[in-house]
Amino acid sequence: MGILVVEDEPTLAEAIAARLRAEGFATHLAGDGPAAVRTAQEQLPDLIVLDVMLPGFDGLEVCRRIQAERAVPVLMVTARDDESDLIEGLRTGADDYLTKPFSMRELIARVHALLRRVERAAEIGSNGGAPAESNVVPIGTGFGPGTTAVRKPQPLRFMAIGTSAGTRLLEIDPAQRRVRVGAGRSQDEAHLTPTEFDLLACLAGQPRTVLTREKLLAEVWDWLDASGTRTVDSHVKAVRRKIGADWIRTVHGVGYALEAEPILGDALEAAGR
Question: Global pTM?
Fold first, then answer.
């Protein structure tokens, strides 16, 4: 698999590339914004390690231009620890981020976790919403443990709890990896990144159940080190921005819960569907 490293500090760029090559990856280097976009077009990397501060134009603009042409997982690297910068990076299509200084061990762990998630999503998509090694999928939410049934999961639909704005619905389609949100028959598609979709799907697997940040890191990011909990917080904020803040409840000091009730069959008709 090929990885594009976009970093304007030559020593750091070479160190990252050398470590990635030692892990068996083919690497390409770019030192500024225009070169990053050009190299991504020519080499079609499987993943991009992208610094935010670049000459030419910054990493946010690089991410926008690359994602507009081809969806590719992006691990953004920033020297700034400002949360608004991190959220802006996620909004442009980045899947994860690291704050400088970081260890090479952590970088490699994040790269492998990102690639595993991409492979898993592609596998599910190519098999109609079910993992290739499984002949059956869970019923109920379609994500969490449960009784096995049909192979292709149906779209999951939820009704918001405690809203004064009338009936609000959330639909999550695991086969097509699409999310729609709205009221009654009027629904708009929310364009989530692969990581944002996986996060929402994980919460939807156990609606109204609080999942700790550590559990979300393990389930969504395949990352077992609790030092990445700010990654969870930033992605939750990005999801809320796209589907509405009231769908996900924060339990301070613990984690998050999807604040919604699953609805099926006749309940859909009653909700205006």
Answer: 0.64
